[in-house]
Every structure is written in C-alpha cells, then in structure tokens.
Amino acid sequence: QVQLVESGGGLAQAGGSLRLSCAASGRSFSTYGMGWFRQAPGKEREFVASIGRTGVSYTDSVKGRFTISRDNAKNTVYLQMNSLKPEDTAVYYCAADIQGWGGSLRMRYNYWGPGTQITVSS
C-alpha cells in the first residue's frame, strides 16, 4: 500500500507561482512512475505531468510553465507551476504507478492522493 499526500495548494494571482509537493510512503518510491493530474469543476480529471521510465512528459497547456521533479531521498515529487493562469484552477492530484512507467493514462496509476485545491485569480 502506498499513501500519497499533496501539499502546497492555495490561492495565486494570474502570472504567479506555486509549488506542489507530494510525499509518498514506502521504500520503493524511486522505482515508481509519478504523475500529476487535475480536475476542474464539471470536467474530467486530466493529465498534467509525469516522471518515470518514459522520462518526463507534460500536457501541452502547461509546457514551458510547469516543471515536475522528484527527490527520491525524500520520497517526494514536486510540481513547480509558474505563469499561472485562471484556467489552471483545479484540484491537483498526485498519483503513483508502481510499475514505474508514468505517462498520461489514468488507468496506469495504482495509487492517488486526496488532492489539493489550486485557485488562480485574474
């Protein structure tokens, strides 16, 4: 069982920055593929970024603005979000793929955090 807990959410102004963290339990964190997803009100959960065997990938709308990284010594994955836009407003979820691949497919991920709210005001 892997437990994930996101932190760092909150309110930001358009053009501002936030950094999300996701702390994971377990001894095998370094082998997991990790992903960030988001869900806006009335919309389906969508892929944001991932890091794993497939490398690093981003959805087009965040390329050049968001950066995913990980610190295996701390069992933590980060999402640095710059140049925030009101359309980035959503609940952001961290997810773990114990097979290590990561990527954009939700079904690949075995464990999910409870989510953290990001609100970007214009």
Account of the 3D structure:
The structure is a single chain. With 122 residues, the chain is mainly β. It is 0% helix and 50% strand. The strands form two sheets. Strands 2, 4, 5, 6, 9, 10 and 11 form a seven-stranded mixed sheet that branches. It is globular. The model has no long low-confidence stretch (mean pLDDT 97).
SSE layout:
Blueprint: E1 4-7, E2 10-13, E3 18-24, E4 33-39, E5 46-52, E6 55-58, E7 66-71, E8 76-81, E9 90-97, E10 111-112, E11 116-121
Parallel strand pairs: 2-11
Antiparallel strand pairs: 1-3, 3-8, 4-5, 4-9, 5-6, 7-8, 9-10, 9-11
Give short descriptive properties of this protein.
122 residues; mainly beta; four-stranded antiparallel β-sheet; 11 strands; 0% helix; 50% strand
Measure the end-to-end span: 40 Å
Average per-residue pLDDT, rounded, comes to 97
Query: Which class of secondary structure composition applies to the elements?
Result: mainly beta
Shape: globular
- The number of helical runs is 0
Unreliable residue stretches: none
What's the helix-strand series? EEEEEEEEEEE
Strand count, sense and barrel status of the largest sheet are: 7 strands, mixed
Portion in strands: over 45%
Which bin fits the share of residues in helices?
under 10%
